[in-house]
Structure formats: C-alpha cells, structure tokens
Amino acid sequence: MDVPKGLAGVVVEETKISSTKDAKLTFAGYPVEELKDLPYPAVVYLLWHQELPTASQLKQLEHDLVASMTLPAETIRLMEYVALEPQHPMSILRTTVSLLGTTNNGGKLDEPRQILGKMLAAIAAIIRLRDSQPQLRVNPQWGVVENFMYLFMGRRPSAKQLQAFNTVMILHADHEFNASTFTSRVVASTQADFYSCLTAAVCALKGPLHGGANEQVFNMLQAIRHTGVAPQRYVDAQLAAHKKIMGFGHRVYKNGDPRAKILRGIAKEIAAETNNQVYFEIQEQLAAYMLKKLGLHPNVDYYTAVIYHCLGLDESTFTVMFAACRTAGWLAHIMEQRANGCLIRPASRYVGPTGRHVPAASTKLATERRKII
Questions:
Q1: How far apart are CA 30 and CA 67, in angstroms?
Q2: What's 334's domain CATH number?
C-alpha cells in the first residue's frame, strides 16, 4: 500500500466546521464568498456553533470579545522581558500563549471567547513592542476588529481599512485540516487544555511553508523592486536555482484559491489608497507569468502580504497577524476534537533495517560494566 505524502487525501476525522470539498471553501455549509462581508464576530459564532448568531447573540459576543482584549500588567511585563532579545515575533507569540496558560488558568478565563480576546490583545502587544510603541487600551464603544486594528496600528482605521481587514480576518479564520489546525487537534485529542493546543498550533504556523509564507512573499516583492529586475527574470533565476516561488500553488485548489480571488481586489484597492501600487503591479506581472509558465495560481498568502504592508505592518509580523485571524478556527477545532474526537495516534511504516542483533562481544562488555557499577 502506498503511503500518501504528507497525508494528502487521507481523511483522519469528521468535522462540521469547514470544508474545501470540490475546491470550494465553506464554513458550516455557507460559501465563504457569502460570508466575507458579515461582521467578523458573526463568522466566529458560526465556526463555534455551526449557526449564524441572532442580533442579541452577536451583540453579546462582540461585547465579550472586546471586554477580554486586555492583558494583565504582569503578562505585559513578562512579554517585554522576553522581547528584550532580538527574535522573530512568532517566537514571542509562542512563549506568550504558553504564558497566558499559566496566568489565566481557571474559571471563565478558559472560555474560548475570553481566550480569543486575549490572543488578539497579545498579538497587538507584540507588534507594538517590536516597534517600541506604548500599549493602548480598547474603546468599549468600538467593535472587536476596529479595536484590534487600533491596538496594533496606534490609530483608528478608516472605514475602508476596517471593512477590508474585517474581510481578511474572515477569509483567514479557518481552512479545514491545515497543518496548524491539525496540530491543534492532535494535542486536543489528548484532552490537553486550550492554551497547550494553541501553543502547538502557533509552532506549526511559524514554518515558512505554512503561515510564514506571507512574509517570504513580501521579501520577494521587495527584492524585485529594489533590484529593478523584471519579475519574469526573477522567477526564471529562482527556478534555475531550484528555489520555490512563495505564494503560488495549493494542495487543494488546483484552479485558484477562492480566498485569493477576493483578496486580490482588496490588495488592489488598499495599495492605491496608500500609494503602494508598485507592489501590486509586481504581483500582477508575477501572477501572469507563473500561470503561463507553471500553471500555478496565487494562494491566500500572496495578496495578504501587500495588504499587511499597506496597513503599516513590518513583514516580520505578518505571520503573527495570520495567527490572530486563525485563532477563531483553531478554537473551533479544539472544541470539536475535545468533545467528539478520539486520541489521534496514526500508524507508520517502518523502512529501516531489520533482523539486526547486538554482537555477543558487546553484550558481554555491558555485563562486565554492570558488575563494576
């Protein structure tokens, strides 16, 4: 029996949260194209309960999330200490999530809505720490997305920025059994606590082949812009050196990522609004050439790189922003796995040497050593 590489196509568990069947992304049965303009908390509620909220349920969830977007002073102090040594923001996030599991353990602080609020606050704090900026407080009169943007941007977003980022958060909220989500479910299957599951998910997301891809995309765009090389020549040179062109192709979406199609329009608009058209123009040339040369379409990481840059984020923080968006989905899967799943323990195929035996001389020597001890 052939072993599918990377578990491709292997069904390991059932879920009611999201699906990519027939290369169409749905959340609890709703096409993501119909959800993209809803308030972000409505989609969070959908992922957690598989039903859209009533007006009162939405209002309560929004209130609870905003109320939770405050970190204890002790947590901030420890985060500042961790951030003293230069390191990737995802490393700080990994430590922070684990830290939250020790300082916020027990009672209502373990509820998913409390955890999501704390995660958003922590990620905004990491971005502010990286930029040596003071921490800010939420405004209870604003929604969760507007507050989150204010916390990491340091200013209230424009209406267009708010709507664009609301859509970005929805499109990134969940994506079936991707690497980090599956990691969180493996840990959840042991009945570990939420913070342990989230810490594991953050570790998986950090890798350049998963969440870290958006950072690599922007590094590529900067290299093309600063060297002045034609995007087509850049691609040819990278391929000749056997290097991967980040932001293209997807294991599920062979004819184009539905999220990327929506994000392209957002990237185009926000790039024009912030005088960053040069990056979007490079992306357009790259996308056309990659499709012609290799038949590959852009994926979700491709356009978010420009969107995040236009929001004033440094590329080193792109992956922590991905984590902010994906936490709602992680929590949904952790809850589902803990409630309905069994311990995940797959088998492996051993391909190493067999029939080996320890030489008699080695066995005799080990016996002599035991006698001496």
A1: 29
A2: 1.10.580.10
H or E, element range at 171? helix 159-171
Condensed to tens digits (0 to 9), the pLDDT of residues 19-40 reads 999 989 999 999 999 999 999 9
Residue 164 token pair: 């664009």
Does residue 273 sit in the same domain as residue 188?
no
Residues 133/231, Cβ–Cβ less than 8 Å: no
Residues 6+ apart with CB under 8 A from 78: 99
List, for residues 280-312, the tens digit of each pLDDT value.
999 999 999 999 999 999 998 899 999 999 999
Q: Which amino acid, 209?
A: L
Q: Hey, which residues are catalytic here?
A: 250, 301
Of 120, 126, 124, 117, nearest to 154 by C-alpha is: 124
User: Would 167 be classed as within a structural domain?
Assistant: no
**147 and 121 housed in the same domain:** yes
The answer on 184 and 273 residing in a single domain is: no
In what order do the strands lie in the sheet containing 18-19? 18-19, 26-27, 30-31
CB atoms inside a 10 Å sphere around CB 332:
27
- Domain coverage including residue 290: 213-310
Degrees (nearest 5) of the Cα angle 221, 224, 228? 145
The low-confidence residues of the chain, meaning pLDDT below 70, are 1, 104-110, 372-373
- Position 239: which residue type? L
Closest among 201, 213, 313, 293 to 260, alpha carbons compared: 213
Residue 18 lies in a domain: no
Number of domains forming the structure of the chain: 2
Q: Specify the pTM.
A: 0.91
**How far is the C-alpha of 329 from the C-alpha of 71, rounded, in Å?**
22
The span from the CA of 126 to the CA of 135, in Å, is: 9
